[in-house]
Amino acid sequence: MNILQEIRMAFANVREGSMVSVRSGQAENEAWVFREDGRFGVAVPLVSNLRIHEFFAGAKLGAVERDVGGHVRTLLRLDSEFEALRNEFAVVCAQFIDPGVDGQERLALTADPLAWWNRWRQLLGNANWDRRAYSSLGELLALERLRSQGIDAKWIGPLQGAVDIQATGASYEVKSTLSRYGSVVHIAGQFQLQRSKHVPLHLIHQRFEPSTVGDSIDSVVRRLVECGMDVEDLEALLTRDGLHAGGAARAETYRLLESTVYVVNDEFPSITPSSFLAGVVPAGIVSIEYDVDLSALHGQTF
Fold first, then answer.
1. 34 and 121 in contact (C-beta within 8 Å)?
2. Quick one: 114 and 141 in the same domain?
3. Does one domain contain both 189 and 214?
4. Domain co-membership, 116 together with 217
5. Which of residues 69, 104, 124 is at a domain's end?
6. Half-sphere exposure of residue 277, counting CA atoms within 13 Å on the CB side?
7. Closest Cα to residue 192, out of 151, 167, 160, 156?
8. Residue 181 and residue 109 share a domain
9. Which end of the chain is more exposed for a tag (fewer CB within 10 A), N or C?
């Protein structure tokens, strides 16, 4: 029986809350199959104290501490919750625990788990989370800027509402880009730029570039917490965005090149229910998406 067959058999038979050892080619290269909290997968020992929490396409990679034979050990785990695809998932798991010639593959995996993860993510594609880290970073920086001005502002972007930030007497939609040129923003839905008679709406456009120095999601979160925001509230929102604590995307750094705020008024091009007769979107149309070129509009430095 080869490793793949052994993993598939273990997936079919291991009980919830249990972990069983599987052969991985060499005695010194331990590996286990487990089931826990409705998820199943494989695990290998991790000597370092790396903080890892990555998701994509139904799979999760993480570092956890578990009791193994009466001793608490740090494990690097790859798991999934899609039972119907467990035989397909076993193929990736077999490659994950395979030590390779003289254990070199296992050494490379445990030395840099994110390198292994990124290779598989590029191959399989990220179907569940295509939101870029700089999008959430842009919203958090706008939130920080507003609060530094004494404005009582609340981040609601991950809740999938019509705007990203609600503040006292105003609302803000934040659009971020890595493009050095052009100012075209994508408007997702007929309600995104819908204005209220009593609450002014603004659009903030931010231009970033990847940089070894600059802001990351984690650094902005730390500053917001130091200024009095609740860390649990922020973490819950980031989790909804797929940006879990320990994820590599949260440590990516970007330099803010430009930040401009626009008032969304009658002169601002938009498509909302009020654009149609009687203020109602025609029956049968369920969504409207369009692009707006900001280059011809007047904005102010934010």
1. no
2. no
3. yes
4. no
5. 124
6. 2
7. 160
8. no
9. N
Structure tokens at 130: 């295509």
Strand pairing report for 201-215 and 170-177:
parallel
Give the residue ranges of DSSP H helices in 80-132.
Answer: 86-97, 104-111, 113-124
* DSSP 8-state assignment for residue 50: -
| Helix, strand, or coil (residue 228) | coil
Q: How many domains does the chain have?
A: 2
Q: Is 277 helix (H, G, I), strand (E, B) or coil?
A: helix
Same-domain check for residues 114 and 86: yes
- pLDDT, residue 100, reads 85
Residues of the chain with pLDDT under 50: 25, 127-130
Residues 116 and 138 in one domain: no
Paired tokens of 98: 């395979």
* Cα 270–chain centre separation: 29
CA 43 to chain centre: 23
CA dihedral of 245, 248, 251, 256, whole degrees rounded to 10: -120
Considering only CA atoms, which of 137, 296, 132 is closest in space to residue 206?
137
Looking at this protein, which amino acid is placed at residue 242? G
Q: What is the pTM of this model?
A: 0.65
Q: Could you say which of 78, 93, 124 is where a domain stops? A: 124
Q: How many CB atoms lie within 10 A of CB 105?
A: 18
d(CA 300, CA 1): 67
Are 157 and 273 found together in one domain?
yes
Verify that 200 and 143 share a domain, yes or no. Answer: yes
186: containing domain: 133-301
CB neighbourhood size of 24 (10 A): 23
State the burial class of residue 60 (Cβ atoms within 10 Å of its Cβ: 0-12, 13-18, 19+).
Answer: middle
- E strand or H helix at 137: helix 133-148
Let me know how long the chain is: 302
* pLDDT of 127: 42
